[in-house]
Specification:
Layout (H helix, E strand, L loop, with lengths): L7 H17 L6 E6 L5 H12 L14 E5 L10 E5 L2 H13 L7 H11 L7 H15 L7 H8 L6 E4 H6 L1 H13 L5 H10 L2 H5 L26 H17 L24
Parallel strand pairs: 1-2, 1-3, 3-4
Helix pairs in contact: 5-11, 8-9
Length: 276
Amino acid sequence: MFQQRNNVFWHKTNGALRYLLAHTCSSYLPLYIVNEYPKSGGSWVGDMLSDALNIPFPRNRLPILRSSILHGHMMHSWNMDNVLVVWRDGRDILISQYFHSLFKNEKGNSVLVDSCRADLGFQDYENISANLVQFMEYIYETKHHPRFSWVDFANRWVGCEHCTHVFYEDLRSHPARELQRIINSLSGISLDADQCKKIVCCHSFEKKAGRKPGEENSHSFMRKGVVGDWKNYFTCEARERFHAYAGDALIRLGYEDDDAWVKVGEVKNKLPFRFV
């Protein structure tokens, strides 16, 4: 009964138990909470934290009542300690959401895919660019999977001072350095740099996916493992629509300085600033 089941009841039970544990037991078990908007890299971070802290990271099963990594997509911060918020460019998230919502993978997303395909009914799911604006409207206006948008999540968690924050983009460019910083911030433990490098190597995209970053498998949970993939799919209309939905959040998080990116060819590959 503890392993993941592909039915709505199991997923709702799992979510409720995680919510309850996060808000009642995080300080004394302790739990280390990895909180993200879906498809921001939280699972990858959770795997590395599990090795670094030598505690379990229960995945695809119900949570456990002992010190562990607790991964979730939470909008309420009351009575939670040891919280790591993982950030990622909302444009890249949208592309990852598209594949995770509309293509079945090995992580048991069939319930989600069946639901989203029934709602959207695209003629050709492989034509991402043509479908992207409608999918964006679905994510930002319908808000079923999950019931809040990346902008909602950003408005809630940006600048939250009692949390540790990390950017997916920084983890890709300097993973060992960021892991060392996260561990020290969450637990006070000073992890050796060489040990961090070993953990990062063990959980690299190449080791886990069996492919180099950039080599895509649309039916894998670990689809591509790159930064900036949104540029391969965003049309002019998609840029304008995303800017209308989330342009302010991009600027607030430091992904853009202004709206120049909306014009094709104006993207600067800017890394985010540190708001905490």
